[in-house]
Specification:
Family: Belongs to the Clp1 family. Clp1 subfamily.
Helix content: 25-40%
GO molecular function: ATP binding; polynucleotide 5'-hydroxyl-kinase activity
InterPro entries: Clp1 (IPR028606), Clp1/Grc3 (IPR045116), Clp1_C (IPR010655), Clp1_C_sf (IPR038238), Clp1_N (IPR032324), Clp1_N_sf (IPR038239), CLP1_P (IPR032319), P-loop_NTPase (IPR027417)
Strand order of the largest sheet: 13-12-11-14-10-15-16
Bound molecules: adenosine-5'-triphosphate
Radius of gyration: 23 Å
Number of helices: 9
Oligomer: single chain
Subunit structure: Component of a pre-mRNA cleavage factor complex. Interacts directly with PCF11.
Shape: globular
Protein name: Polynucleotide 5'-hydroxyl-kinase GRC3
Length: 432
């Protein structure tokens, strides 16, 4: 593909679609007319830079674009779902107006569908149109693989006050608001009970926000979900998530079977087709994007990444383990082992932490608190506290020296490490 400048003239209701490799940069400039990226308006004559993206820039009334740099593909498409998405937005607007008048909760919408059907894209579009109408909806991402709001591995929510940034997306630094995130891991079938417990934690965090702010309350919630929800094993989890989050309406993209199952279960369902532009992404693409996301977390715009060397004794690490710790023979007579129970078990600080991303929890370490009280936990108390704790942040272990019993810890900003528990998840990364 040529890296020279290319010009594109789009007629009304057309979309310019492109794909760019994670390690290459494509520049896109709107030179005439109006255009938007999933509902966020583009500025005229600004050179937007994209890396590792598959996107579609849509115009309602026609526009001209200019691109330069290498792209995997670029073309103009006319089969879009933008009219349906806009109608959906207006339906939400009506419900918000009604909710405000009656001083009650705004619409709670969940988007469901198989992999690469455009769930996240629709969630972003509805959020963007909402914020363009001065709404402040809550975006809730319960797909632990996606890392839409926080790092992959988490489920999270965030009040969105303005359209999502075209280049930086939902970078919390740009937004100057911290998301609420809970660390889970990747596979929702692995620890189903724990997953639903965290969805419930998210629900509680959202309810607290809604109780404290009438405006947020009437502006509603948009929930993006994992594609596993439409698998046979996922349907019950989907139904429970709908109940927990008190969803009013489920938008099902391109899946009649799920629409019918949910309708039969008494849920309010809207069926939508998949948009013509949706691009599929393979495992390698997802891995590369995950690495890019992690890099942005530590080295992104407005951050001051900071490395410090700490002693093994300065960091207390736990890991999420499924199943009872003690063998059944060691339990008191009559007590059953629960294969689904979740425990946060001790990890010896060692080489095993090298290249790990650690979750920084809010749970204070045992010891003396600010008031001089001595605080100690049993393993069960520790687990209960860690299950309830949302994510304070993440650090990266870049070096481990077993002989000197020291390691190098990278954080996105300077500052001493908090005296809280750290949790080792599944994320490994090579800072290169
Ligand atoms: N109209 C479009 N033109 C070009 N690319 C698009 C368009 N709509 C969506 N995409 C891209 O297609 C890919 C898949 O879309 P999206 O992430 O919304 O799907 P998803 O159903 O949420 O996927 P998953 O289940 O894997 O999370 C994304 O890279 C997205 O940016």
């Amino acid at each position: 593909m040529s890296v020279k400048k290319r010009e594109w003239t789009l007629k009304p209701n057309e979309e310019f679609r492109f794909e760019v490799e994670p390690k290459q940069t494509l520049t896109v400039k709107l030179t005439e007319g109006k255009a938007e990226l999933f509902g966020t308006e583009l500025a005229v004559d600004y050179e937007y830079q994209f890396q590792g993206k598959k996107l579609g820039i849509f115009t309602w009334h026609g526009c001209k674009l200019e691109t330069s740099g290498p792209a995997i593909s670029e073309y103009i498409g006319s089969e879009t779902m933008m009219n349906e998405h806009l109608n959906m937005h207006f339906a939400l607007e009506n419900l918000r107006i009604q909710a405000k008048k009656e001083n009650r909760n705004g619409p709670r919408v969940m988007i469901v569908g198989s992999s690469d059907t455009g769930k996240t894209t629709l969630a972003k579009t509805l959020i963007n149109y909402g914020t363009r109408h001065q709404r402040t909806p809550i975006l809730c991402d319960i797909d632990p693989k996606s890392g839409l709001i926080s790092l992959p591995g988490t489920i999270s929510c965030m009040v969105i006050t303005r359209p999502i940034d075209v280049e930086e997306e939902l970078n919390a630094n740009i937004y100057k608001t911290s998301p609420i995130a809970y660390y889970y891991g990747s596979n929702i079938f692995d620890k189903q009970e724990f997953y639903l417990l965290l969805v419930n934690n998210i629900k509680d965090s959202i309810e607290k926000k809604l109780d404290n702010d009438d405006k947020i309350r009437s502006d509603g919630i948009i929930v993006d979900t994992p594609c596993e929800f439409v698998e046979q094993q996922g349907i019950e989890i989907l139904k429970e998530a709908i109940e927990l989050l008190k969803i009013d309406c489920v938008i099902v993209i391109g899946n009649e079977r799920i629409s019918s199952i949910l309708t039969q279960a008494g849920k309010s369902v809207i069926k939508l087709q998949k948009s013509g532009g949706i691009a599929s992404r393979d495992k390698i693409w997802h891995r590369q994007i995950q690495a890019k996301r992690i890099k942005e977390y530590f080295y992104g715009k407005d951050l001051t990444p900071f490395s410090q060397t700490v002693s093994f004794n300065d960091i207390i690490v736990r890991q999420i383990k499924k199943g009872m710790l003690a063998p059944s023979s060691a339990l008191p007579i009559g007590m059953e082992t629960n294969p689904n129970s979740i425990n946060f078990v001790k990890i010896e600080t060692s080489e095993i932490l090298l290249h790990s991303i650690l979750v920084v929890s809010f749970v204070p370490l045992p010891g003396t608190d600010d008031e001089g009280n001595i605080k100690l936990y049993t393993p069960e108390e520790e687990t209960e506290l860690l299950k309830k704790s949302n994510v304070c942040g993440f650090v990266y272990i870049s070096e481990v020296d077993e002989v000197k019993r020291k390691m190098t810890v990278l954080g996105p900003n300077p500052g001493r490490l908090p005296k809280t528990f750290f949790v080792m998840g599944e994320l490994k990364w090579l800072d290169s």
